[in-house]
Amino acid sequence: MIRPFLMLAGFFGLTGVALGAFAAHGLKSRLAADYLAVFQTGVHYQLIHALALFGIALLALHAPSRLLVAAGSLFTLGVLLFSGSLYLLTLTGVGKLGIITPIGGTAFLAGWICLMLAAWNLRG
């Protein structure tokens, strides 16, 4: 899972920067300030978890484990559900999409728990 996690880290990093620039330059005049802040929250969490995926891939090179695979998978799911739902919510105005956001947040939390457990199981 090292290559897929590195590819996802790169993709989430690339699109996070692009979406952040889009929000700052393209959406600033089109969205209300509170919606712009929600969009930027999605970008923020996406970029954090792009870096986390990068770290998981590097760690998996030295200490592969199912917990690291679970953490990376949960971070990916979190980006898609948490950040994705915030992007869609702000761009479409469909408030019901906010129901999805906590599921993505829970995936992030579960991913961090898996990473902690993987660290606990390391030898050394």
From TrEMBL:
Pfam assignment, any one: DUF423
Protein's cellular compartments: Membrane
Organism: Stutzerimonas stutzeri
Membrane topology: Multi-pass membrane protein
Protein's UniProt keywords contain Chloroplast: no
UniProt xrefs under InterPro entries: DUF423
Protein name: DUF423 domain-containing protein
Lineage, top ranks: Bacteria, Pseudomonadati, Pseudomonadota, Gammaproteobacteria, Pseudomonadales
Cellular-component GO terms for this entry: plasma membrane
UniProt keyword Ligase, yes or no: no
Residues annotated as transmembrane: 43-61, 68-87, 99-122
Primary localisation category: membrane
Family assignment from sequence similarity: Belongs to the UPF0382 family.
Coiled coil ranges: none
Keyword set, alphabetical order: Membrane, Transmembrane, Transmembrane helix
